[in-house]
Design goal:
mainly alpha
Amino acid sequence: MANKLAIEKKIAVISMLAEGSSIRAVERITGVNQNTIMSLGKRVGNACAKLMRYSA
């Protein structure tokens, strides 16, 4: 998978998801495809789970 999304866009997407915005709303506001948003959300979620698992 190519990692072409700018870090600023990634931060914006994850911030909006964390605030409770819907995937479609994030797509409309940022212009990032919903499949990309889902993929990014999954990657960040897995990283958070791993961090929580090993930090206890």
